[in-house]
Amino acid sequence: MIQLVSAPAELQRPAELQRPAELQRPAELQGQWSRVLGRPEIGFPSLTARDQDWRAIQDRAAKVGKTERVTVIGVGGSSLGTQAIYQTFQSREPARFTFLESPDPGVVPGETRDQNVVIVSKSGNTLETLAWIERMHAIDPQWWKRSKVTVIASPGAGHLQRWAEREKIPVLWFPENVGGRFSVLSAVGMFPAALMGLDILGFRAGAEWALTQPGLSARLAGEALRAWERDKWISQMWLYTDGLRVFGEWWQQLWSESLAKKSRRDGTSAPRVSSPMACQGPRDQHSLLQQLVDGASDKHVFVTRVKSVEESDGEFVPELFAEMPYHGRALTLGRILSAEARAFERTLEDRAIPYCSIRVDDLSEKGMGALFMLWQMAVAQLGEHLNIDAFNQPGVELGKIHAGRILRSGD
Between these two residues, 58 and 103, which has the higher pLDDT value? Predict the structure, then answer.
């Protein structure tokens, strides 16, 4: 379903410079997965086993029925996973989704009457999300009574939960031990996926497969550790299909919020980790590749390629431009995309830039479920190895505190 193809050995580290600890690292990182599973405050690995939650998602989706328009109100981890799913499966022409995130005055919420509105906030107190509810209330004081509204939140006494209880709005529960950036395989992502007409049990099956592959996620984590040892402090994710464009943004959040920490769990200073950067291939070969190839040698690259996309049908014979190298040869757009991806990897090899190629069979529900879970596992394993808390985000919370103080003071 998913395979890793590492760059040639000489791009990783010459054999004579490999240290015993480095050679043992994949097994060590695989062992870290057992530590993750042993921590009850980490809930994302158990999402696939929560039968009651999956039934509740299916039941709610069946009750609200088919719809042509859906509005999702949420920000960050409450929205990015759903946006990634929507981007990946747009070719199936699902219901038209609108995402309300940042409270930008230039964004005008559409008519919500007779459509599905999904409101997501783990705490129930997210500033941006509550602001959108207030703004829509100012436009139409009873909008939620003329729509099919579903709230997704953790059990608790947040503002959103109390509002939903008061207005008798149905709630799907956001597990308390699952952070927002690890929540895509919960109701947060799976209920909107069901409204798209997707097979949510396919996502579940893919995630279950990934959970049996801790060695595979350990290899991903090991690629990062090896790059950091060589002072590669920018980790680029090059995605060779437009269907994964927003997935790259989801991956950026997962990496940034989970791994960039000031302190270890024992209070000592945390080690430096790389900054993530999502890139779209081959588009960004015409913008970012120059800096990657001839700029500072501080980058490590993950290349994600999709077999079904590169082997797509739709063959044609180019006839218009006789000077082009493909003139007169039967082609598909997928073959051109594949050639671009292979050329990119060879360019990295020519410049001795370390990379790892992630090969995904297809962008089915099962394939996406596996991809989501595999990266969550790799990040969790890195967190355990570094002895940091990969499941909090104190820097994010500080920003929320300052925003609240500014609004209260009127500054």
Answer: 58
Backbone φ and ψ for 323, nearest 5 degrees, come out as: -80, -10
Q: How many Cα atoms within 13 Å fall on the side-chain side of residue 303? A: 25
Q: Which tokens go with 284?
A: 């960004």
pTM: 0.92
Contact 284, 238 (CB under 8 A): yes
Sign of torsion over alpha carbons 382, 384, 385, 388: positive
> Rounded CA gap, 383 and 396, in Å?
18
d(CA 305, CA 53): 32
How far apart, in whole angstroms, are the C-alpha atoms of residue 143 and residue 105? 19
Rounded-to-integer distance, Cα 128 and Cα 105, Å: 12
pLDDT, position 22:
45
d(C-alpha 228, C-alpha 105), whole Å: 41
Single out the residue of 212, 263, 168, 159 nearest to residue 373, CA to CA: 212
CB atoms within 10 A of CB 152: 29
Sequence-distant (≥ 6) Cβ neighbours of residue 49 within 8 angstroms? none
Residue with tokens 């980058």: 299
Dihedral, CA of residue 261, residue 264, residue 267 and residue 268, to nearest 10: -100
**Cβ proximity of 240 and 304 under 8 Å:** yes
Burial of 85 by CB count in 10 Å (0-12 exposed, 13-18 middle, 19+ buried)? buried
Distance CA 187, CA 172 (A): 7
Alpha-carbon span 211 to 128, nearest angstrom: 34
Residue 104 is classified by DSSP as -
Q: Rounded distance, CA 71 to CA 149, Å? A: 9
* Per-residue pLDDT tens over the stretch 385-398: 999 999 987 755 66
